[in-house]
Specification:
Layout lengths: L2 E2 L10 H7 L15 H21 L6 E4 L2 H16 L3 E5 L4 H14 L2 E5 L9 H8 L5 E4 L13 H10 L3 E4 L19 E5 L10 E5 L14 H4 L7 H16 L1 H22 L4 E2 L9 E5 L6 H10 L2 E2 L15 H5 L8 E5 L6 H16 L6
Parallel strand pairs: 1-11, 3-4, 3-5, 5-6, 6-7
Antiparallel strand pairs: 2-8, 7-8, 9-10, 10-12
Helix pairs in contact: 1-8, 2-8, 3-4, 9-12
């Protein structure tokens, strides 16, 4: 049996999404910037999706900019804050996705801005008291904190942080890649300035997403060369991808509660089965965190690479952390920031609407066999 439990890295595309995309790869192939009929149909499809997104997130269509995914959107938000809003300080954390942390470090070198690192508590939460102290310092700031951590699933109290930022006149960018399509985000209620999306995290296609830019926030193109996306991003739009993004979001929010209940049940079942089969396991995430992710520590096993390799040989896909950091020998920067000193490997299992109990029971049996075997037998 082959089992896919790496949905935080990417999800399998929904067949209904593929069906929605196909006409825009065949019949409706025109350039959406063209004024003739071949261009008008794809242009109308793009604007239809933009309107649907705006309705789902309670914002205006002019606040949605289509991108190639979450990494580009994160970069756009931070660069714009420096270039267009005159930000002199970036406040972020050491557990952010590298699309944020590496970009902040690059901006510090190239644009002479300061990067302040807010403290991370031992449970992976952001120290909001320390955030307030940093916001009180001189210099216009942007705060960049992810809504849900992609390794441990810790959730940020987004509205509370947004109100805190407004109190001090700071911009707020949140990487919401792991939560768009999995939680309702009301942008009328939550005064965040930028959020990001990647379609492949909720059964859409890879290579497409969006950046939300709150109305009134200064913003100029990060990618220049054309007047596409209402002069906010140059380059011919990925029409089929945008249509797929729209369909994937439609499906995600149409059955959101059912998906949440199913995936939460899968996560809970897997957690309980692991405890029963391998009593020494420990967990690097709270039960009330992101419901799609479970980060597990297997004490006394030699290392993550060996365990992940053995699982892969058995047809089981999972990860040691962010897919963007695969191959790194430094270990998880998230667990390091939490000062986790676990013995043995830490493995991230992540679930989707397609995950089944039979699959999870199979994985538990394989893990019991692997983790319980002498090292020499591996």
């Amino acid at each position: 049996m082959k089992v896919y439990l790496d949905n935080a890295a990417t999800t399998p595309i929904d067949p209904a999404v593929v069906e929605a995309m196909l006409p825009y790869l065949t019949d409706f192939f025109g350039n959406p910037s063209s004024t003739h009929s071949f261009g008008r149909t794809p242009k109308a499809a793009i604007e239809k999706v933009r309107k649907e997104i705006a309705q789902l997130f309670h914002c205006s269509t002019g606040e949605i900019v289509f991108t190639s995914g979450g990494t580009e959107a994160d970069n756009m938000a931070l660069f714009s804050a420096i270039v267009d809003s005159g930000v002199k300080r970036i406040i972020t954390s050491s557990i952010e996705h590298h699309a944020v942390s590496h970009t902040a470090e690059l901006l510090a070198k190239r644009w002479n801005v300061n990067v302040d690192w807010v403290r991370v508590l031992p449970n992976g939460s952001i120290d909001l008291g320390h955030l307030r102290e940093l916001l009180a310092l001189d210099g216009k700031a942007i705060v960049s904190l992810m809504h849900a951590n992609n390794e441990i699933g810790r959730l940020l109290p987004l509205k509370e942080v947004a109100l805190l930022c407004k109190e001090y006149g700071a911009l707020l960018h949140s990487d919401t890649v792991q939560t768009v399509g999995h939680y309702h985000i009301d942008l009328q209620d939550i005064p965040v300035d930028f959020i990001t999306c990647a379609a492949h995290k909720f059964h859409g296609p890879k290579g497409v997403g969006f950046l939300y830019v709150r109305k009134g926030t200064p913003f100029s193109p990060f990618i220049t060369g054309g007047s596409q996306e209402r002069d906010k991003r140059g380059g011919t739009e990925n029409v089929a991808g945008i249509v797929g993004l729209g369909k994937a979001l439609e499906l995600a929010y149409a059955d959101l509660e059912a998906h949440q209940q199913h995936i939460t049940h899968m996560r809970s079942h897997f957690r309980n089965a692991l405890i029963e089969a391998i009593p020494q396991v420990a967990f690097n995430c709270a039960e009330d965190g992101l419901y799609t992710v479970l980060n597990v520590n297997f004490p006394h096993f030699p290392n993550s690479e060996m365990l992940l390799f053995q699982l892969d040989l058995k047809g089981i896909a999972c990860s040691g952390g962010s897919a963007c950091s695969s191959g790194s020998s430094k270990g998880s920067h998230v667990l390091a920031a939490m000062e986790k000193k676990n013995d043995g490997p830490n493995v991230r299992f992540s679930f989707s609407k397609y995950t089944t109990v039979d699959e999870l029971n199979h994985v538990v049996e394989v893990l019991k066999e692997l983790v319980g075997a002498p090292v020499s037998a591996l």
